[in-house]
Structures are given as C-alpha cells and as structure tokens.
User: Fold this.
Amino acid sequence: MAELLVIRHGQASFGADDYDALSEVGHEQARLVGETLRAAGWVPDRLITGSLRRQQDTLTAMGLDGSREEHPGFNEYDFHDLLAVRFDGKVPGPVKRDRRTHFRTLRDTILDWQQGGLEGARESWAHFEARVEEARRFATDTKARRVLVISSGGVIGQLVARALASPKPMMMELNLQMKNSSITRFVFSGPQFFPTGIQCRVTSSSRRARSVADL
Assistant:
C-alpha cells in the first residue's frame, strides 16, 4: 500500500498579531523533521500543503526536494472567527494570551460548532468535514507511493477520526494531542485509507535516524 505522512506545521506565533508566522522554534522543528525523513531514507513522491503560510514555511524549512502542490482543504479551521462568533467579537484577554485557557475554551467552542452552533461563522462544521475529505482524496488519488502533506492539528484530527469512523467529538480530542512538527502516518490503496503506527514529534537531532516505518 502507498503511504501518506501528514505533518503538523512547526510552532506558530501564539498570541502575536500574525499567528500565521512560524516562530524560531517552529523553523527549528521543521528543519529537524526534514532531517529525520532524509536520515530514514523516506523520499516523498508528492509534496502538498494548504494555503497557510505557516504550512508552506514548514515545508520550505524541511529542505526537501520537489515542487509543492497546494490544496486549501488542508487549511486549519478559522479558530479566530469561531471564538469571535462565540464571544460576539469580544474575546476575553485570557483566551487570547493564556494557553491553558485558550485551548480549554477552543475545545468547548469546537464541540458546539460540531453540533450546529455558532451560527454566523464563516465556515460550518459540515463544510469543514467536506473540504478535509476532498483534500484527502486529492492527496490519495495518485500513482505516487509516498505522499507528504503539511497541514494543521484540526485537519489531522479529522483525518484520523474519519478513518476510524469515530464520533465527532473525537476529532477535537485528537486535535489537542497533535504537537507541532508531529508526524501521523496513513496507508492507502484505492478507497482504503487508515492510520498506522505512532504519531510522534521530532524534538532533537538525536531522533533523526529513527525509521519512519516505526512512526
């Protein structure tokens, strides 16, 4: 079967005016995960990102050869918009600046969104589900044997949850476990698509030689 590796972008700039920019840590994470793939001899046949800058910059920092394809279905849901709708445009300061408060609030917000709440949001949950599935088909409708995608936590959580036919809330539980620069491995053949192995994060150069087959 063919392989699909989906990597979450490197650390973005939490709390900054431009969240879509990688932090210094994010650039280093991306560099290390690129080294890990090269050390394991895992050479992708296709490189795909969403249209977000933090995803594209992650791929660039990984230093892989090949041209980049783009599919907006791999973009993250717009959490700024969802929180703004929930709080009528007045998002409390702690939700913006404190990580623990932010992610606890985001979890509750996404669960509400999945149940049809947050009327007036730019994107509905049904549209998010549909575009992620469209992006998955774009990535796997190919003769390539090794496909690499740079995406975001919510999309990766949805890909895993959908592949396992899990209840909707599982997407958010998985989303919160997707660390920056983590690797999630899927295999596919025709309509068959399922996750396999362990999702992990490359945190230091000592991990470079670990086989991608073990992820």
